[in-house]
Design brief:
- A hairpin with a 7-residue loop joins strand 6 and strand 7.
- The protein folds into 3 domains: 344 residues, no CATH class; 55 residues, no CATH class; 98 residues, Alpha-Beta Plaits, CATH 3.30.70.
- The protein has 579 residues and is mainly alpha-helical.
- It is built from 25 helices and 8 strands.
- The protein starts with a helix and ends in a 29-residue tail after the last helix.
């Protein structure tokens, strides 16, 4: 017969965990979606990139690959220290990806039938996450950051920021258009001029397919990703092998409920008082369903509770402290040989990345095949350092007000997949905007103040005379000159075989920042003026203003009209009168 007090306590613990999970996911989404969070940059009460700075795999791999201590990532190292005390509390309570998988599993369980639960885990499959961890860390030691493929927080950020958020904006935009006649009839100006601008991103189909696969795997085993594939969970598991706060079992009737109901498939096994702590997600499901109340999560000491079942009805189990620690031969941990093989595989991947003809990880030489589409945001570090630091999280893409930053495919080589590139035809780079640098958690894009950001040249404009209306067809067109905020485009006589001589655009390279206003506003269907990464200024440290002046650039002032002359005191502007 269960102990009522124990059941009530364990039920409250599980409910509290669900509330913490919901609060954590809501905070994650608010920081990701709310415009005010991005406008405050890193100076807000809660930094909008705080969850990314908590990812232990992303932090460890980034610092190893960049060979630098990144002070902004200290929360992740603090989380590893916390794992020594609380185990994988982050996985079971705070991780947005884990909460998403729990919610998806609950919905599938309700609408698609109960999820098939295995009585025990596959030991060889459970070792996969440790092997992926070894490969990722070995590649990072070789200077290649592969963490973005499997780090949970960058994955969740990409899904919610680049897939779900645009769909919500699109739904709001269409709903607003549908109800526009009704809103106009209310004669409320605030509603009449209300607008929702949709955003569009590349790689959405891939992200939907990838996350669809992760969610479908929940039908195979609960928390499949967390238990068998997540290298961040493996890293936390290594630090959680003997935590202070973990499951304690004082009495057990061997009813067998805990093992098949454990989301981590880490329920009690024969001869063990509790699951391996490195595999436990501290979800407290086992304590909630325990028929005797003899299972609980406690700190340091054994379970002692008034009203526990008599010893004649239970089987006492030894304290977990008396068990020997996990060893390389345990079911949850791969052998040293397997670890070494995975590490060599990671080094092999790093070697392939550096040996590829399309790789941009080597110094820029005559043989480097730099893509014209690889236009990095202003303040981006030199390419090898940039790729070592970039988590491909998508925060900079989400923060870009013009929607010009997009995830790359192969423009930066295979190792640059999902990294940010500017697509000026979609949206230019605002001269006074520096959100991408402020929001970057690893400073792959340096946070620059607006005055210095205007000197972080990202490329140069190139006029394609065979497509230009003035040069190719003799039609008068000065759009690119009018919209250029740096005054980098001048007009020269354009000789055309199809029309009279008209002024045609010519770019002054020293004044061109590469913002892309000219490319976006070009009236030709296939833009006749494009931005290419010509003479881009990318620094690991130092002043962009000094480096730009030393390179002979003239980017100090935008092309703005001169201010009107001051009026005599007491004189009103034209059209105003006191009467």
């Amino acid at each position: 017969m269960p102990a009522p007090a124990a059941k009530q306590a364990s039920g409250r613990g599980r409910l509290f965990r669900r509330l913490v999970q919901a609060a954590s996911l809501i905070l994650f989404l608010l920081l990701l979606w709310r415009e005010a969070a991005f406008s405050s940059g890193a100076d807000g009460a809660i930094p909008p990139n705080i969850f990314l700075r908590l990812d232990p795999l992303a932090a460890t791999a980034t610092m190893l690959a960049s060979r630098e201590w990144i002070s902004a990532l200290w929360p992740a190292l603090g989380l590893l220290g916390l794992a020594l005390i609380t185990g994988r509390l982050f996985c079971g309570w705070l991780c947005p990806l884990g909460t998403t998988l729990d919610a998806a599993a609950g919905l599938m369980n309700r609408y698609a039938g109960p999820i098939r639960r295995s009585a025990g885990p596959s030991a060889s499959l459970r070792r996969t996450k440790y092997l992926l961890l070894a490969a990722a860390l070995a590649a990072a030691l070789a200077g290649i950051n592969l963490a973005y493929w499997a780090a949970p927080i960058p994955l969740a950020t990409r899904f919610y920021g680049l897939v779900l958020y645009p769909l919500i904006l699109l739904g709001g935009h269409e709903a607003l258009n549908f109800t526009r006649p009704f809103l106009d009839s209310l004669d409320w100006p605030s509603l009449s001029y209300l607008a929702i601008t949709p955003k569009r991103f590349a790689s959405m189909y891939f992200l939907v397919g990838f996350f669809g696969l992760i969610i479908w795997l929940e039908r195979v085993k609960p928390r499949f990703w967390c238990n068998y594939l997540c290298p961040a969970g493996a890293l936390l598991g290594l630090f959680s092998r003997r935590p202070w706060w973990r499951r304690r079992v004082s009495a057990c009737t061997s009813c067998g409920k805990c093992a098949p109901n454990c989301p981590a498939n880490a329920g009690r096994r024969e001869g063990q008082a509790s699951p391996p702590p490195g595999e436990c997600l501290t979800c407290q499901t086992c304590a909630d369903i325990c028929s005797t109340g003899g299972s609980a999560f406690l700190l340091f000491h054994d379970r002692t509770e008034e009203g526990a079942p008599p010893a004649s009805q239970t089987t006492a189990l030894p304290d977990p402290e008396s068990r020997p620690p996990l060893n390389p031969g345990s079911a949850a941990f791969p052998s040293r040989r397997a670890f070494l093989g995975a590490a060599l595989g990671g080094l092999g991947l790093a070697g392939l990345a550096r040996s590829s003809l399309a790789s941009l990880l080597r110094p820029q030489t005559r043989g480097t095949l730099w893509s014209e589409d690889c236009l990095r945001p202003p303040g981006a570090r030199p390419e090898p350092d940039f790729l070592a630091r970039c988590l491909r999280c998508g925060l900079c893409l989400r923060a870009c007000p013009t929607n010009g930053l997009q995830p790359a495919w192969l423009a930066a080589g295979p190792e640059g997949v999902f990294s940010p590139v500017l697509r000026p035809r979609r949206g230019p780079c605002e001269p006074d905007c520096n959100l991408c640098g402020l929001i970057c958690p690893t400073q792959a894009i340096t946070a620059l103040d607006p005055a210095e950001k205007r000197w972080a040249k990202i490329g140069g404009a190139v006029v394609h005379q065979n497509r230009c209306l003035a040069w190719a067809e003799g039609k008068s067109c000065v759009v690119c000159q009018e919209v250029c905020p740096y005054g980098a485009i001048e007009l020269a006589p354009a000789a055309s075989a199809l029309g009279p001589h008209v002024p045609g655009p010519v770019v002054t390279a020293a004044k061109c920042f590469g913002c892309g206003y000219c490319e976006q506003h070009c009236p030709v269907l296939v833009s006749a003026i494009t931005i290419q990464p010509l003479n881009a200024l990318r620094l690991a440290r130092g002043s962009y203003i000094q480096a730009g002046q030393a390179a002979g650039l003239d980017l100090a002032k935008k092309n703005e009209p001169d201010p009107p002359p001051p009026r005599p005191e007491g004189e009103l502007p034209p059209g105003f009168d006191f009467e």
